[in-house]
Amino acid sequence: MRSLTGKLVLSVLVGSLVLLGCGKQEAPKTKAQKPQAEKPAAATPAAQKAPEAPGTKTVIIGFTASKSGKLKTEGERQINGVDLWIEQVNAKGGVKLADGTTVKFAAKSYDDESNKDRVQELYTRLINNDKADFLISPYSSGLADASAVIAQQYNKIMITTGAASDSTYKKGYTLIYQAYTPASRYLTGAVDMLGKLAPGAKKIAIIHEKDKFSSDVVNALKAYAISKGYEVVLFEGYDKDTTDFAAFINKIPPGTDAIMGGGHFADTSTLTKQLYEKKVNSKMIAFLVAPPEPKFAELGDACVCVIGPSQWEPGVKYSPEAAKAAGVPWFGPTVEQFDQSYKQKYNEDPSYHSAGGYAAGMIIQAAIEKAGSIDTDKVKKALDEMNLMSFYGDIKFDTSKDNHGLQMGHEMVYIQWFKEPKGTFVKQIVWPASAASAKPFVCPTR
Amino acid sequence: MQELINSLTDGFLLGFVYGLAAMGLSLIWGVMSVINLAHGPVITVGMLTTYLLFVHFGLNPYLAMIIVAAVGLALGLLIYIIAVHRVISAPHLSSLLATFAVNMIILGIFNAIFGGDQNNISYSLGSLSIGFVNITYSRLLAALGAVLFTAFLYLFLYFTRPGKAIRAVANNREAAELMGIPSVQVLALTFGLGSLLAAVAGSLISTIFPFTIFSGGPYELKSFVICVLGGLGNPLGALLGGLILGLMEGLIPMWMPTSWVPVVEFGLFVFVLVVKPTGLLGAK
Questions:
Q1: Which residue in A147, A170, A183, B53 is deepest, having the highest Cβ count within 10 Å?
Q2: Count of helices and strands (H, E) across chain A
Q3: What is the percent of chain A where pLDDT is above 70?
Q4: Span B250-264, pLDDT tens digits
Q5: CB contact, 8 Å: B124 with chain A?
Q6: Mind telling me which residue stretches traverse the membrane in this protein (chain B) (predicted)?
């Protein structure tokens, strides 16, 4: 018996080691790959450079993309956006610099497998080996934060997209610029909406993923909710690989008026599904990231009434006229033009991740056009002074020492899922009222 | 009170599935003294088979379980013939390493083919409400499935010739061989049955939760805890251990953050090993 016990302990130790290995291996494929064997992602058509004509220059846009691992869905949409921008800007003849050189763009990207360690290694490679001129961040705050260090260290301008966490911009970086509305303003609008939608509501339960981005969002949300007089009856985080939410759902006290939080697509859609299956009733459900994704409709009835903040939606009302009224210049395609060209190329509706990818490229383009140069200092100056409106919304960066690069102009919109009489599910913009395409509704009893 | 009863019900139902997964491990252990480190990947095989049959052939995940059982049995026989048979009489470390190698091979193949993405069987059955108690049908059916397969295992072990042969070999391999029982076939069948149970447990889990190719791992570790808790080499003890673990997983988060669940579980594992190494129903 004793020897069997010894073997048992040994086997559990071995098993634990295997699991520990598995825990970090969003993709163990990496371990077998040697850096020399690395090849740029072939899927990026723009990466195939044409021979340069005299007076033209190809600017390399370097980025990593989560083509595998848990951030695959969001990551791929973001790359689609970047690719579409490159295709369109090059088709229009590129950008003309002050010295008469025409600049065209090409993408160089690698699959980061949603893995933070890989990101730093790959961005160093993009800068040193691939000679990237400008950088776009990978999707997600954690990965973007890891890549920002490298960009700043090598004096490269990086536009972060798909990354809303505020903390990256409090580290004294001077070359990192955020395309997304920061996390601190992500779900606060849902609290305002709750006040209008259900004035009697008092109790909010917050269940969130324990990653950097979601924690930033819910900490700001909690503080805001308390400042508005709400009681936060549950505030608990879950690990990133959680699939069983029963323990969290059972902890939601009866009489809770709103359930908020979430994390990324996979976990939040599972949480939404399990809330529906457990027939949890509340007046409002507002989650991060997942609800604005078109794929969220695959949850069926479970998606009905769920609200999500979105950086952008095809129904937003930004237009050259609105820009004129606001006294800022308009830049790039209109909302309709972007929406249609995206659908044409990818045969699906663009999500805010796609728009964010496109916007990141467009910001670089706008800055180069204004600077008339691709020199880092001149482009940085143009970015610092940028204040414009585009299909993606307003773009203006904080230039203060404490928050340099933080997005100040762009605002969130909130969508809600509706069930149509014919049984299909559609999302509508419900907040802010000025941008709404439908009126928000209180969740029906389940 | 409402929270307590809901948590207990959820944990209890899931406990049956944990028990079924552990039963496979316990059976192999009890009969051939092999610690099967390929148990987790076999659980994943069950999950993936169910998923692929559902996605590509539209097969109801509960019906798919029959195919999953056959796949589990075949895989178990294959693993036994290729990796376990030659080392079964060697020192125990050999079989441990052999099954560990199988574990890495299966995971490597899955990673190459399927990648690390999350898979979800979108087959929702809703839930049953009795007063304030809410039970999802997927958990209820998974528990029922686990009970059925447990019953099948017992009927097989006690009322069929091959089952009796397995028990005889477990009891005394040499004596069984002297009685004319072909022990090699019996051992292969045992390994196949253990894998069958693991694959079916994986299939049941995939109807409740989304999974990745690595999801079998945590259930393998849980199976170790359960086997120790219930008693080494005793399949019924494994079921009991599974229920206890399920209940603990329901109860612990009521008083502390869920991140503490594995700490308490493995604390219990060490505690049982020290205080009562034979487990609750363990053989003396």
A1: A147
A2: 13, 15
A3: 87
A4: 888 888 888 888 899
A5: yes
A6: 12-32, 62-83, 95-116, 137-159, 186-211, 223-248, 254-275
pLDDT digits (tens, 9 = 90+) for B84-101: 999 988 888 999 999 999
- In chain B, the residue whose alpha carbon lies closest to the alpha carbon of A72 is B117
Interface probe with A: pick from B103, B134, B227, B265, most Cβ of A within 10 Å:
B134
Contact by Cβ (8 Å): A307, A440: yes
Residue pair A266/A72 in contact by the 8 Å Cβ criterion: no
Q: Is A260 left (phi over 0), alpha (psi -120 to 50) or beta?
A: beta
Q: Write down the domain spans for chain B.
A: 2-103+126-275
Query: ipTM of the predicted structure?
Result: 0.81
Q: What is the DSSP string of A184-207?
A: GGTSHHHHHHHHHH-TT--EEEEE
pTM above 0.80, yes or no: no
Residue ranges of B 233-262 with Cβ closer than 8 A to chain A = 249-250, 253-254, 257-259, 261
Q: What is the CATH number of domain B2-103+126-275?
A: 1.10.3470
> What stretches of chain B show up as alpha helix (H) in DSSP?
2-32, 39-57, 61-79, 92-114, 137-159, 161-171, 173-178, 183-208, 216-230, 235-255, 261-275
- Residue B47: helix, strand or coil by DSSP? helix
Residue A27 has pLDDT above 50, yes or no: no
Q: What is the mean pLDDT of chain A?
A: 86
The B residues from 144 to 203 touching A (CB cutoff 8 Å) are none
Q: pLDDT digits over A59-71, tens only?
A: 999 999 877 776 7
- CA dihedral for B89, B92, B94, B99, sign (positive or negative): positive
A146-160, B27-41, B218-232, range with greatest mean pLDDT: A146-160
Identify the bridge partners of residue A431 per DSSP, sorted by sequence position.
A414
Tell whether the model's pLDDT for residue A9 goes beyond 70.
no
